[in-house]
Amino acid sequence: METVRLTMAQALVRFLDQQYVELDGQEHKFVNHIFGVFGHGCVVGVGQALQQGGHSIRFLQGKNEQNMALAATAFAKQKNRLEIIPCVSSIGPGAMNMVTAAGCATANRIPLLLLPGDTFACRQPDPVLQQAEFFQSFGQTVTDAFRGVCHYFDRLERPEQLMTAALHALRVLTDPADTGAVCLAMPQDVEGEAYDYPVSFLRKRVWHMDRRAPTAAQVERAAEILRNAKRPLVIAGGGVRYSYAHDALKAFCEATGIPFSETQAGKSVLPWDHPLNLGGIGVTGGKAANVIAKDADVVLAVGTRLSDFTTASKWLFREHTKFITLNICPFDTVKMDAEPLLCDAREGLDALRKALAGYRYAEAEAVRKARDEWNALVDGWYTAQDPRGLTQTRALGVINEFMKPGDIAVGSAGSLPGDMQRLFRPTGRDAYHMEYGFSNMGYEPNGALGVKLACPDREVYTFFGDGTYLMAHSELVTCLQEGLRVHFCLFDNSGWGCIENLQNNQGSDTFGTVFNFRNPATGELDGAPIPLDFAKSAAGYGLKTYTIRTEEELRAALAEALTQDLPVLYDIKVLPGSMTPGYESWWRVGVAEVSEQPRVQQAYADMAEHIAQTRKF
User: Which of 57, 118, 209, 240 lies in the 20 to 30 Å Cα band around 324?
Assistant: First the structure.
């Protein structure tokens, strides 16, 4: 057997450089970049392997481990899971910083390869710098925290273990039904240890993402349910996008006349103005989809996890509503007591369309009326003026109107995802990128870097609040370093406006959710607002920035920004509380059962009433 002597880290880099995925006969190189924040636990291991060359992987310098891993998650999501960016960290706090990103990737079913440094496998220098000791087991390290948020975890305690670990890591990363975060923890001594690796391990390897076809029996069972339906509804999730089933969904709905609604991950798979598109569904959905959903007798859920935001905590659908779940993941197919259709989204939709030849949806007029009413409401939100200042919805409408076909909108947390699922009108395919499985604050400014790396020829606009900016924005500097023009749209409403709104709606007064000085008179955080200048902050990094208080200033800044060759931040001062309300939806949160506050007591009674109306299964 022909071998080559390499350190474990050198072999890892060479292995990753030779991984490809194939879908529909087209090969895609799976790894072209690696993110890293170097420390003593990796700089002389993986860092040395990358520096000495002999590979085609481009190194990207992260500024914070969590944030670079969020960027990598966004990159893989925008690439429809056909390419990843592995993330390398040192041991201890550097490794721990990536745990949140691992949870984000796993919640969203996005492949993310994490390569944290770890403590010495030989245990001779223990305890080393940044090592936490666990008295009950020498074998436990902080990287065990990744076990709870990863689909695959391994610790490489000998260099030859890389061969089995790497193959299993790629098995999960390329599996559309069982993907998520993968962690290969690398003790820092093992990174530099050598082994005679078989050359065959380092050869080009193609992972085939073969489409799983439905069985004839599954198709017939699902088709029979739909044939007898009078008011069916499709829910289009992210799986439609990842399986490139855009055209299959269009063909299915147009052939049957069945309308479709969108989850956050499914938005922009088809145009917003398609006559069968009811828009967003659920807690952050619009009135059209939610009204039609309440009367649906059958729901065909395609490529969706059916989260509580999609089902409005299972309150949106009646007990008798029958679900069909078309999904590649067995775990998802049995939700809502559904009839499972276990297959690739494109293959399943094509098969169902053929099986339903001659079927026609009978309530087309109701769909048209619901769409017309909802579109008028959206127009109203986008154009409404407030004499007190610029509203969040008006600013969003101005940016949406300015964006060109193909420009990408990115979001994740706060009140903006609700406004965006309800109001945003993407003008291109896959032009709406929302991370809402984890709703990870900090994803937006950092994920925008990943989206721009995935689509360097498209303009990327990312939408977030001041609370998110304060939590995590380090990769703005990486955008600057890489010469990437990203548009950072910061909506400053002086606090965590989304949570304040939730707090107030459930009977509590504002407490701990606005950014105010502590008041000496009361001892509480109810003093004057803190006058934060986010434009000045980002300008200090070197970004082009604009402070915006009016619609006219916003329009001028958007136009001028396209003449820049560096990232741009818009510090948009919007009126607090100027987001959209919910439409025909409900979200279950844990309201206090016992309280001395009458409004909280009423909120609990309202919750109990909604629970009584909610389907249990």
Answer: 209
> What pLDDT score does 617 carry?
84
- Among residues 165, 169, 170, 163, the alpha carbon closest in space to that of 208 is found at 170
CB 462 within 8 A of CB 411: yes
> Quick one: tokens of 26?
């087209």
Domains in the chain: boundaries: 3-208, 216-370, 384-494+530-573
Instruction: Tokens for 536, please give them.
Output: 């000045």
Q: Which fold has domain 384-494+530-573?
A: Rossmann fold (3.40.50)
Domain range 3-208, CATH architecture: 3-Layer(aba) Sandwich (3.40)
Domain 216-370 annotated CATH 1.10.3720.10: no
CB atoms inside a 10 Å sphere around CB 256: 22
User: pLDDT at residue 611 above 90?
Assistant: yes
DSSP assignment letter at 84:
B
pLDDT exceeds cutoff 90 at 616: no
C-alpha–C-alpha distance, residues 150 and 588, integer Å: 27
Query: How many helices (H) does the chain have, and how many strands (E)?
Result: 24, 23
Q: Which two tokens stand for residue 320?
A: 């008798």
For the chain, helix, strand, coil in percent to 5 are 40, 20, 40
For β-strands 3-7 and 194-198, DSSP reports them as antiparallel
Sheet containing 277-280: order of strands: 277-280, 260-262, 232-236, 298-302, 322-327, 339-342
Are residues 84 and 32 in contact, defined by beta-carbon separation less than 8 angstroms? no
| Contact between residue 589 and residue 497 where contact means Cβ atoms under 8 Å apart | no
Beta bridge partners of 245: none
Flag whether pLDDT at 199 surpasses 90.
Answer: yes
**Alpha-carbon span 104 to 178, nearest angstrom:** 15
pLDDT band at 333 (very low <50, low <70, confident <90, very high): very high
User: Which of 344, 33, 15, 251 lies closest to 156, judged by CA?
Assistant: 15
Asked if residue 81 lies in contact with residue 94, where contact means CB atoms within 8 angstroms, the answer is no
Nearest 5°: the CA angle 431, 437, 440 is 90
Proportion of the chain above pLDDT 90, given as a percent: 99
User: How many Cα atoms within 13 Å fall on the side-chain side of residue 304?
Assistant: 30
Q: How many residues does the chain have?
A: 617
CA distance 433 to 240: 14
One-letter amino acid at 285 equals: G
484 in Cβ contact with 456 (< 8 Å)? yes
List the one residue out of 570, 535, 578 whose CA is nearest residue 464: 570
